[in-house]
Amino acid sequence: MADAPSANADNNAAEAFLQGGSLKHAPGPYFGSYGGRWMPESLIAALDELEETFDKAKEDPEFRAQIADLNKNYSGRPSLLTEAKRFSEHAGGVRIFLKREDLNHTGSHKINNVLGQALLAKRMGKTRVIAETGAGQHGVASATAAALMGLECVVYMGAEDCRRQALNVARMELLGATVIPVTSGSQTLKDAINEALRDWVANVDNTHYLLGTAAGAHPFPAMVRYFHEVIGEEARAQILDQVGRLPDAVCACIGGGSNAIGIFHGFLDDPSVKIFGFEAGGDGVDTGRHAATITLGKPGVLHGARSYLMQDDDGQTIESHSISAGLDYPGVGPEHSYLADIGRVSYEPITDSEAMDAFKLLCRTEGIIPAIESSHALAGAIKVGQRLAAEAAASGGTAEDKIVIVNLSGRGDKDVATAAEWFDLLDKDSAEAEIGKEGEQL
Amino acid sequence: MTTAQTISKSAAAIDKARAEGRAALIGYLPAGYPSVEQTIAAGIALAENGADLIEVGIPYSDPVMDGQVIQAATTEALANGFSVRQVFDVVAGITSKTDAAVLVMTYWNPVVRMGVEEFSRRLSEAGGAGLITPDLIPDEAAEWMEASDKYGLDRVFLVAPSSTTERMQRTVDASRGFVYAVSIMGVTGARTSVSTAAKDVVAAAHAAGAERVCVGLGVSNAGQVREIAAYAEGVIVGTALVAAIRDGGVDAVAALTKDLSTGLTREEA
């Protein structure tokens, strides 16, 4: 932002891409006019140390071997690419493939990033990691990595989220982490990040902030993406292996955007592949109760980066709303803002209702319970599939010739109480019904 | 510091204190807490009881550098409907009645939203001295450097115990008015003792050429003020004043300011 007139930078990059340039491996700190370091001076030295450690590590064969070994023998990578044949019938008949990040250890893509960052924390000689969490997926993943590597772990979680995801709090505690409920502000993910930053500034000598998404100050967006690039690399190789060609479209859900940037990265330089990010539309983008940051937000600075942001006319952050705690964030990673501006990725909102329909559909057609976050991507894929099918019909082809990959970023075990309440499956007097009922009031 | 072409209101206020053989006292108040009128009255009370500079904070939704006392105050101000443009009313209300230099302390996004140029113009029109920017580092400040030059505003960046020599130099070079030395690695809030790191940060800022360095974070009583006045050009008090206005209103602010100002003289150092 400092030196680069943003519009020109964006146009140049877009132009370069159209002429065969690469969008992959963008190093930061800036993605067009987005990114940077809008952070207190107190933390700049720690960000510099992290950047230097990361830059060295990714060129270090030993570090890369450690990551590869953990991915294979601890997380269970590569994750499968599963064709969802019965689900596809509801998406215009195109062929839909699911990238099964739900099958990773801890049940989501989050493990990719935490293992990488925990290794970096060890390299920096830090003995303590702190993390924020919304749904609890990143908190559980962080607690897991900390247990594996013998690090102390403190997780900040909004008080409302602690209640919505009580079992995930127990999981983190079983793994040895301390969970601190955050009661400031809106008591959700953004406030958990604020509190983690306050902890970090006071304890930066021995503490690494294990940020869970591809947002925040440089080097976090580029670094978190690096650890998730494996998703896109695997998916690209797997689809080439299974069907012999690239997909027509790739879909992912977007909160901060880490699972999305991971799978998108594999296809950014393939112009024939359309890429879609699905934001949380909550009750609907015209209701004001949503988390559709790119769709309706305006550029601003929050949590260290310039990016699209849900904010009012005073620049105060607006509280987001989504049935999915993991997407309930009023910001988004800066690389997504850039990819939106240059038109490489299309970002669209999916309502709670659309997501829950897709959630149920995947359960019933494929025997897979998806995370509610990932269900936004599934709902989006249905729309994309129907569009592609219409295009195919218009050009005399068949829907079956169209291929869509959906990043199934996490499993839905954590969401069973919310889903049971949504679909009215619970005895009204049960404890779970109480949790779900209060969740509805958020 | 690039003070050559611009007359810095903050520097003038600090120099006036220096000519009197003492350090300058800088008091922080969050705008709109408990009301805009009360903030103006408290600001006037600060100036009349020994504060040389006044730092008016803009309540913000995500104050990552603030501890619980200031968070609670700014959250209440926002809940009461505070809007950013009212900060100019507070600045004008204080500058029209006192000689104190009045700076605005703000997280950066409210400035971005209004537009850096527009914000700067309005601050200047209100008689403001400049901005203290806790989450804006010189690396990202190109637009602010330009606007602050255009409107003759001070740009007070922060330096910290963790600042490297290189960053210290860059920040001192970019600052105008004074440099804000963060005394400890942490957020705002009263503490029982001033960190020994503060003295080192001030020395490093002086070594980098800063003529005016003021120390903030954790300073709450006259004893701490006296300790810092021995080596810095100014002492910044925030949380203790916010607690005073919370518990005792404008009168309590006046009383605390008077007490704090007894620590400013250097003769005992």
Q: Kindly state the percentage of residues in helix of chain B.
A: 40-55%
How many helical elements of chain B? 11
The overall pLDDT of chain A, averaged over residues, is 93
Number of helices of chain A: 17
Gyration radius of chain A, rounded: 20 Å
Q: Give the quaternary arrangement of the chains.
A: heterodimer
Low-confidence stretches of chain A: 1-9
**Major sheet of chain B: order of its strands?**
5-4-3-2-1-9-8-7-6
Point out poorly predicted stretches of chain B.
none
Distance between the termini of chain A: 36 Å
User: Helical percent range of chain A?
Assistant: 40-55%
Radius of gyration of chain B: 16 Å
The secondary-structure class of chain B comes to alpha/beta
User: What is the number of strand segments of chain B?
Assistant: 9
Distance between the termini of chain B: 27 Å
Which structural class matches the secondary elements of chain A? alpha/beta
Notes on the structure:
The complex is a heterodimer of chains A (442) and B (269). By secondary structure, chain A is α/β, with parallel strands linked by helices. Helix content of chain A is 46%, strand content 18%. Chain A contains 17 helices and 15 strands. Chain A has helices at 6-18, 44-58, 61-75, 85-88, 110-123, 137-149, 159-164, 166-174, 189-203, 220-243, 258-265, 293-296, 334-341, 352-366, 372-394, 416-422, 431-440, and strands at 30-31, 34-38, 81-83, 95-100, 128-133, 152-158, 178-182, 207-209, 249-254, 274-284, 289-291, 298-302, 304-309, 345-351, 403-408. In chain A, strands 3, 4, 9, 10, 11, 14 and 15 form a seven-stranded mixed sheet that branches. In chain A, α3 crosses α5 (110-123), α6 (137-149) packs parallel to α8 and α10 packs across α11 (258-265). Chain A is globular and about 65 Å long. Chain A starts with 5 loop residues before the first helix and ends with a helix. In chain A, 63% of the residues are buried. The model of chain A is unreliable at 1-9 (pLDDT under 50). Chain B starts with 8 loop residues before the first helix and ends in an 8-residue tail after the last helix. Chain B has 269 residues and is an alpha/beta fold. Chain A binds chain B through residues 1-3, 36-46, 48, 184-185, 190-191, 194, 197-198, 201-205, 298-303, 309, 311, 313-317, and chain B through 60-65, 67-68, 71, 75, 78, 83-84, 108-114, 134-137, 139-143, 157-164, 167, 171, 182, 185-187.
